[in-house]
Amino acid sequence: MKRLKVFGSLVKDSLDTITHGSKKYHLWMALLTFVMLAGMYCYSIQLEHGLSVTGMTDRVSWGLYISNFTFLVGVAAAAVMLVMPTYVLKDIDFKQAVLIGEGLAVAALIMCLAFVIADMGGPSVLWHMIPGIGVFNFPNSMLTWDVLVLNGYLFLNITIPFYILFRHYQGKEAKRSVYIPGAILSVFWAVAIHLVTAFLYQGLQARPFWNNALLGPRFLASAFAAGPALIILVLAIIRSFTEFKIQDKTIKKIAMVVTVAAQINLIMLISELFKEFYAPTHHSESAYYLFFGLDGKDALLPWIWTAIPLNVLATVLLTFHKLRNNFKVLFFCCFILFVAIWIEKGFGLIVPGFIPGPYGKIAEYMPTGIEIGVTLGIWALGAFVFTILAKTAIGIELGKLRYKK
């Protein structure tokens, strides 16, 4: 009963916290609400008319929704880069940022699930994904593995921070014997969620563009570059607009993680380009379409030729210590690296896998306004959820939220 009473008090105090704030905070939340409502309107049109209102066809059946899903799985997995040094290796420099990183992982996973629902056409078919009720087809289908690892990782990223914050809310220290086993499990689980997603693509024999042994490792490298890059940007915003001060050395350590991961990602990209273009076969047509176009069809050229220079520029600048330690340069590099990897793992990976089709047919894909509206709405949902989680967590960590006996 006592725990239920404390939980009720926490919920009440959290609601009070997230409904009060500065003018900028209310404007931010109002903007996110407006974008979410616009996204819901676009989704209502999709529910009424079906997926025909999107740019997807029977030729290109995965588009903007699955592109964002693939990218956000990596963003969610990146929380492990803060969890492991903080909880397992006891690195106090990461301690300030770890709860923020886990909150970001929760928001990213919620967006992942939302993008899957949007791509399925509507929530009415979700029962197929429920074990024991729908046609789950476990363990043969890689999609079922993806369902399990994503929901399992979401559970871990909710329960571990909640336990720690629940204890801090009562003015007590969290017991390491309770949360350390879960933290260690989440390290391996984070790797699993991205590898399983990569295996999902690699297992489709009719799509040679994805039949690449480097796909899994590169998924991890790009995730551990883009995810921590986003965490750095979020930490920069938090320490500018709140009393929760993140030390410079914390950001610099995360920046080192971003740099090493970006370098590995770039090396793997060069390896993939060598494989595709040095001795090309008919299986290289998807890569040719992506980088140079085929038969006059070149819709993806502006995307990929924007992503590659941004990726290279960010990685080169981050490699130099003086530039990386200059926070203005660091934040700029993190932003363009995040955008570059979003393009590469979205339009640069998902769409080309369908072009040309198994019989050589070239059917290009571009997202419609409805797809873009739903996508922006889901991103706004993620930002809304993260803002609520971060504001509550910061209040508890600063001691402003405490249980009153």
From TrEMBL:
<feature type="transmembrane region" description="Helical">
    <location>
        <begin position="375"/>
        <end position="396"/>
    </location>
</feature>
<comment type="similarity">
    <text>Belongs to the NrfD family.</text>
</comment>
<feature type="transmembrane region" description="Helical">
    <location>
        <begin position="27"/>
        <end position="46"/>
    </location>
</feature>
<feature type="transmembrane region" description="Helical">
    <location>
        <begin position="178"/>
        <end position="201"/>
    </location>
</feature>
<protein>
    <submittedName>
        <fullName>Polysulfide reductase</fullName>
    </submittedName>
</protein>
<feature type="transmembrane region" description="Helical">
    <location>
        <begin position="329"/>
        <end position="355"/>
    </location>
</feature>
<feature type="transmembrane region" description="Helical">
    <location>
        <begin position="66"/>
        <end position="85"/>
    </location>
</feature>
<dbReference type="InterPro" id="IPR054823">
    <property type="entry name" value="DsrP-like"/>
</dbReference>
<dbReference type="GO" id="GO:0005886">
    <property type="term" value="C:plasma membrane"/>
</dbReference>
<feature type="transmembrane region" description="Helical">
    <location>
        <begin position="221"/>
        <end position="242"/>
    </location>
</feature>
<keyword id="KW-1133">Transmembrane helix</keyword>
<feature type="transmembrane region" description="Helical">
    <location>
        <begin position="97"/>
        <end position="118"/>
    </location>
</feature>
<keyword id="KW-0812">Transmembrane</keyword>
<feature type="transmembrane region" description="Helical">
    <location>
        <begin position="300"/>
        <end position="320"/>
    </location>
</feature>
<keyword id="KW-0472">Membrane</keyword>
<feature type="transmembrane region" description="Helical">
    <location>
        <begin position="254"/>
        <end position="274"/>
    </location>
</feature>
<dbReference type="InterPro" id="IPR005614">
    <property type="entry name" value="NrfD-like"/>
</dbReference>
<keyword id="KW-1003">Cell membrane</keyword>
<feature type="transmembrane region" description="Helical">
    <location>
        <begin position="147"/>
        <end position="166"/>
    </location>
</feature>
<dbReference type="Pfam" id="PF03916">
    <property type="entry name" value="NrfD"/>
</dbReference>
